[in-house]
Amino acid sequence: MRVYNFSAGPAQLPLPVLERAASELTDWSGSGMSVLEVSHRGKDFVACAADAEATLRRVMGVPEDYRVLFLQGGATAQFAGIPLNLTAPGDTVAYLNTGQWSAKAVEQARAYDLDVVVVADEAASSYTTTPEEGSFSVPQDARYLHYTPNETIGGVEFGYVPDAGDVALVADASSTILSRPLDVSRYGLIYAGAQKNMGPSGLCVVIVREDLLGRARTTTPVVLDYTRMSAADSMLNTPPTFAVYLLGLIAHWLEDNGGLEAMGERNRAKAELLYGAVDASDFYTNPVQERSRSWMNVPFTLADPALDADFLLGAQAAGLTNLKGHRSVGGMRASIYNAMPIEGVQALVDYMTDFEATRA
Amino acid sequence: MRVYNFSAGPAQLPLPVLERAASELTDWSGSGMSVLEVSHRGKDFVACAADAEATLRRVMGVPEDYRVLFLQGGATAQFAGIPLNLTAPGDTVAYLNTGQWSAKAVEQARAYDLDVVVVADEAASSYTTTPEEGSFSVPQDARYLHYTPNETIGGVEFGYVPDAGDVALVADASSTILSRPLDVSRYGLIYAGAQKNMGPSGLCVVIVREDLLGRARTTTPVVLDYTRMSAADSMLNTPPTFAVYLLGLIAHWLEDNGGLEAMGERNRAKAELLYGAVDASDFYTNPVQERSRSWMNVPFTLADPALDADFLLGAQAAGLTNLKGHRSVGGMRASIYNAMPIEGVQALVDYMTDFEATRA
């Protein structure tokens, strides 16, 4: 008996992927071993990892002059990895601050003797907005412009790719990657924790343009050194093998279901359905500026917060789980990643309508 | 049809653990969700992680003044994490070099502006020995003495706990942890990648004495900052949830099977059986000094290396897998971690005897 799971991450995964993983967890490909038990340097796992990378590249349309790295430590480790790999002490770097995750990235960068320029800061809006396109300017001596296309906590998303001029654009795409087509060539570096649209926690994918390699500081921990990791096919040390295997299964699931074009259409329809229900009611409110609304994470509040607990209890009973909002925002949050079918969003909307009718 | 899998890591896991994980991979504890899909901050997973830690503490007898951290990046990430957390620039640190893993730890430490003193170096023996007890002296102004109790590649193991005087003893226990009882109170810090005796790859357990916290350098990536990670119960960011869950299952499996005393007896018997067979034959040779032989990783060579490929093919056909030695050592390597039953070692010994009889 599966539920509709609106967790912000780790998040719902495609059922066929979980069923496949369960069916071969004690005997993978007739080897008599689990994929959890095989050497990362054995030919079977090397082929598995190569297939995961190749399929991800096809699905995303990653150009040939980009490397795809499978790292650990979540996106948070890359908050350090990015300045360590792309800058020297004294350099200038630029950040857009649109939420708690970009703020953490800024804070970590300040540890590395840099001139950290926050070129747009939406904190004053309690992170309910994104800067208007063209409203900020990027210092052209910056090593990179970092931004967070989708903020998981605030449910705030950029509706455009920022223009950084000649400066390398760096994106923490953890909660938006694979949700729709993306022009990778606009970016210098894209990174994403896997635990939303790509698989389980414990894997961070880094997609980096080759010309940005080769300048890591000597103090970079080797596991965060993109150049050394790239030269070793992400196997400088033991990678998180099970997470890489699941990423491959999910990339194939995406390909079998129409790729990112189809996924983008589904996700747009899901978001429109849910925001439509929120906007049609005086009982539910979404705090985010309309043009900045996330397709993936939809926070909403009830007119009377005293009803929050009842709302959550009833939702749980209806098979709709993990709807409690982030503690810093309150209310509810429905995360509707790729694996959430539109039927799940419809079930949530139906429940919201019923709850409002009986309790408002 | 399961095989006996002698992989050095990721390595064979207890079948009951894999069967349990497979049986609940789409519906964990009746939640309608996989353990892969739940928030690390939800009460179910928080309880799961707390139980994994508590069970590991019971099994190992970890004293109360030690913290247990669940980190990422493998032991290799801690090659940087240890100097970053325990030293200031200009400090002295001491290392015992007994193999490729300790050599990598030394190399990484040299990146952090330290006086790195290698107090014993076994490279001249091609890493087939450990220093004799009492044969080296540790500078008493060193911040720590680092050593590798068991070297996975060379199959070399310390038969004693080095005396570091008042200097904190730091151990990379990746390939020996949980293989027998260990007096944690002798150590300042013990760390281990999970993928040998503790679970899948992607999780690194750090056990650190509290008085060593609080001195991380400001340049420490936050995911490697033991003090901050400890304050956040290892959930400063999303932990590798599935690996933590499996660690808990394995800790319970250990407890249900007699704990580390029983495991130590089993492992001693397994090692004696295999070394006995090697020593009884002129056809097989183990290169390691007798008192330094590993219980976990047993390299051995055939008298005629031209027979290596046939040996491996026959072994595979007999359901004995992953016996090929590390490329730097050659020959064979049988890793016989906790999950390898003595029946598996007996099957290997029988196969070795047959092979010698027909091919020598």
From TrEMBL, chains A, B:
Function field: Catalyzes the reversible conversion of 3-phosphohydroxypyruvate to phosphoserine and of 3-hydroxy-2-oxo-4-phosphonooxybutanoate to phosphohydroxythreonine.
Details of cofactor binding: Binds 1 pyridoxal phosphate per subunit.
Native organism: Actinomyces lilanjuaniae
Pathway per the UniProt entry: Cofactor biosynthesis; pyridoxine 5'-phosphate biosynthesis; pyridoxine 5'-phosphate from D-erythrose 4-phosphate: step 3/5; Amino-acid biosynthesis; L-serine biosynthesis; L-serine from 3-phospho-D-glycerate: step 2/3
Residues the record lists as binding L-glutamate: 41
Residues with N6-(pyridoxal phosphate)lysine modification: 196
Domain Aminotransferase class V: start-end pairs: 3-348
Class of enzymatic activity (EC top level): transferase
PANTHER family documented for this protein: PHOSPHOSERINE AMINOTRANSFERASE
The protein's name: Phosphoserine aminotransferase
UniProt xrefs under Gene3D superfamilies: Aspartate Aminotransferase, domain 1, Type I PLP-dependent aspartate aminotransferase-like (Major domain)
Pfam assignment, any one: Aminotran_5
Binding residues for pyridoxal 5'-phosphate: 75-76, 101, 152, 172, 195, 237-238
EC numbers: 2.6.1.52
Cofactor: pyridoxal 5'-phosphate
InterPro entries, sorted: Aminotrans_V_dom (IPR000192), Pser_aminoTfrase (IPR022278), PyrdxlP-dep_Trfase (IPR015424), PyrdxlP-dep_Trfase_major (IPR015421), PyrdxlP-dep_Trfase_small (IPR015422)
GO molecular function, a single term: O-phospho-L-serine:2-oxoglutarate aminotransferase activity
Family stated for the protein in its record: Belongs to the class-V pyridoxal-phosphate-dependent aminotransferase family. SerC subfamily.
